[in-house]
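QA checklist item 7 of 12: single-chain prediction sanity check.
[x] sequence parsed
[x] length recorded as 194
[x] structure emitted
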Amino acid sequence: MFSTGKIALNGIKDGDRNTAIELNNNKFTFYAGSNNIGEIDGLGNLRVTRFSSQNQFALDNNTVTVGSIGGQAALIANGAGKVVLDTANLEITGGLIENTVVDADITITGTGLKQNRTVQFDTTNGYVGPYGTEAQRNATVPRLGALWFNTDNKELQVYAGAADGWVQSIGVQEVTVTRELANDLNTIYNLILN
C-alpha cells in the first residue's frame, strides 16, 4: 500500500506485541516486556521508572547511584543555579552551606564517640564563628557551651548557663569568694602546711 498523504499511527509494536510505543492522549507511552516503562507527555516531560547512563549513573525512584568503577556523582549548578539537598531547608551554593529556616541550626555529626569528633578547616584563613553585638547575641536563647565573639567589648565569650550567662572564654574571670569557699581553702592550706 502506498500513500502520499498523512497516515495516522496509533503506535509502533514489535512482532510479539510486548514492546511498543503508544501514541494517544497527546503523549508517547513506552512499553517493554508488556510493562509501562515511561512516557513523554504533551509538555515534553520525560517520566521513566528508572534512568541509567551507561551503568555509571542511575536514578531509580528516589535513589541516585553511581557505577562501582571509579564511581563519583557530581551535582553541578550552571550559571546562577544551585543544587538543593533536602529541599525543606538545606542549600549548598558556591561554597556556602545554608539552612534556609530562620534561626535554625546546621548539625554536623558522625557515627563515632562524641568526645572524639572534630571539625577541621584546611585553609590559610582563620575560623570565623558567630559574632556580633550583645543585643544580637541575646536575641535568642543559646545552648550551654555556645561560643560568641562579642564585638562590643572585643571578647570571645562562652555561654555558661542561665545562672552565669555569658562569660569570657579566656583570661581573668571574676570570682566571688564565699565564706564556705574561704573555710575550705583554709582547711586545705592547713593540711598542706602541717
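[x] summary fact logged: The longest helix spans residues 179-193.
[ ] second reviewer sign-off
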